[in-house]
Amino acid sequence: MLSFSEENYLKAIYHIEKLQSNGVSTNAVAEKMDTKASSVTDMLQKLAEKRLVIYKKYKGALLSAKGKEIAISVIRKHRLWESFLVNKLNFSWDEVHDIAEQLEHIQSDELINRLDAYLGFPKVDPHGDPIPDKDGNIAKQEKIKLSNLKETQQGILVTIKDSSDDFLRYLDKKSISIGSTIKVIAIEPFDKSILVKIGKKELMITENVANNLLVKEI
Fold it and tell me: Most buried residue, 4, 5, 72, 150, by CB count within 10 Å?
C-alpha cells in the first residue's frame, strides 16, 4: 500500500505530464507540491524503485503504466467525493477540495464504485473536470478559452482553469457556474476586457478571468 504522500506525488506528476510531453522536472514537481527540490528527488527515487515512475537524474520523470493507473484512480476518487459533497451534502464548490484531498486516499474500490453508482455515474465533477470511469477512461472535452471567442460568439462553460477558492467565490458573486451560456457582446481593444451576457445579465470581465473560463462553443 502506498502512503498518502506517494499517491499525491503520482497525481502531481500526472497533471504536469498533461501539460508537457517531455520528462517532468524536479523543479516542476517541487512547485506543484510546494516543497523542496531535494525532497522531490528523494521521492522520485523511491517511486522509481517501486516501478511507478521512470526517473533519470537531470532528465526528469515520467509515470510508468502502473503509476499512471494509480494516479488516475486517485483523481477519480477525488472528483467523485467532490461531487458527493456538493450534490448530496450541499457543500459549495469552493469548500470541497481540501476535504476530497483526504477522502481520495480511501483504498476500497467497492466503496468508490458504489459511490459512483449512487451519484448516477456523473461525467464531470462540480468544477467541470471529467471523472475517470472505473477502467480509468477519461472522456475528452471540447473546450477553448472564453477569451478566444469573438464578438457575438457564445459558449457553454464546461470547466475552469483556476480552481482556487478565491476564484470560485468570485464566480459565485458573478452568478457564473458550470453550464452557464456566455455570449461575448464586446471586447475592449485596450486591455482585452470582455463584456459578456449570461442569461439576462451583462457584465464586464477581465482578460485574466476569461482565460480561466473554458467553454464549448455553440
Answer: 72
Angle at which helices 37-49 and 26-33 cross, to 10°? 110
Asked whether 188 and 194 are in contact (CB, 8 A), the reply is yes
CB 118 within 8 A of CB 80: no
**Residue 182 — φ and ψ, nearest 5°?**
-120, 120
* Dihedral Cα 110, 113, 119, 124, nearest 10 deg: 140
58 pLDDT band, cuts 50/70/90, is confident
Nearest to 150 by CA among 179, 189, 200, 177: 189
Phi-psi region of 196 (alpha: psi -120 to 50; beta: other; left: phi over 0): beta
Q: Rounded to whole angstroms, how far apart are CA atoms 85 and 27?
A: 33
- Bridge partners of 182, per DSSP, are 155, 198
Count Cβ atoms within 10 A of the Cβ of residue 96 and give its class: 0-12 exposed, 13-18 middle, 19 or more buried.
buried
CA-based nearest residue to 1, from 107, 90, 116: 107
Specify the pTM.
0.88
CA 9/CA 214 separation, integer angstroms: 26
HSE value, Cβ hemisphere, 13 Å, CA-based, for 174: 23
Three-class DSSP category at 71: helix
| Residue 34: all three cell numbers together | 510546494
Place of cell 439576462: 200
Report all structural domains of the chain as residue ranges with CATH numbers, in order of start.
4-63 (1.10.10.10), 144-217 (2.30.30.90)
